[in-house]
Fold this sequence. Notes:
Elements: E1 2-10, H1 15-28, E2 34-40, H2 50-70, E3 75-78, H3 86-92, E4 97-99, H4 100-111, E5 115-119, H5 125-134, E6 141-146, H6 162-181, E7 186-189, H7 193-199, E8 204-205, E9 208-209, H8 213-231, H9 246-256
Helix pairs in contact: 1-7, 1-8
Amino acid sequence: MKIWYQLVSSESGMKHFLQATQKLCQDAALPDTAVEVRGTSQGALGDQFRLFWNYDVREIIDNALQIRKTGGYDAFVLANSLDPALVELREVMDIPVVSFMEVTCFHACTMGEKFGLIVPNEKMVPRYREIPIGYGLKDRLATVEAIEFSNIRGFDAVFTDEKLGDECIAQVKASARRCIEKGAEVVIPAGPHATLLAMRGIHQIDDVPIMDSYRLLLKSAEMVVAMKRLTGVHISRKLLYQAPSQDYIDRVADVRNIDALRRS
């Protein structure tokens, strides 16, 4: 199978993070799985601010629509933890669209009653609180705790500078302990620090599981593709993910001049 693994991070500004995540995922993949870890052209310049975030989301939509038109992939993985264009893409994609936050939050519920999130900076806390509450998991969310990376691209250096990596890990451990103090039985790192933790083999802090988020996401995508092959089904087209008709899509493609939506 072939999986498009979409991060928001810039392919030039966060190349070391993307390379590390590519190796992590490919090493975890089944022998017949090819994983393409991709970023965006300018992403994560300030995705804690929703105005800037919208520009990154549009590029992700464009990537997915091109795959919809040309094919070649068995799953589209939203490997960013803010659920970029999740509903929008599930409405139109005919392959599974797999979400970082859905996978990690619901898997955490199989590991313990309450989970905590570790996010890149304080500004992101309200948004990350909204997402699991939107899944109906308000009573399972213990807390959202931040580390201190207001400039998201500053994360890239933690993959090449051991001292900076150590400092990042120390911040993560402190945040994880705050999560645990507030009742978390599982901790989810949401951001590039998840790759750093996995690279260093850190899977528990004070006997509490620290989720290996990106590899879990890859394995979940493999499972969803396998189930689609077994059953022919990967999504409900009732209500939330109801798809527009092809005639409607053609009309919008013409009005909006969206070539990727046009029939081949």
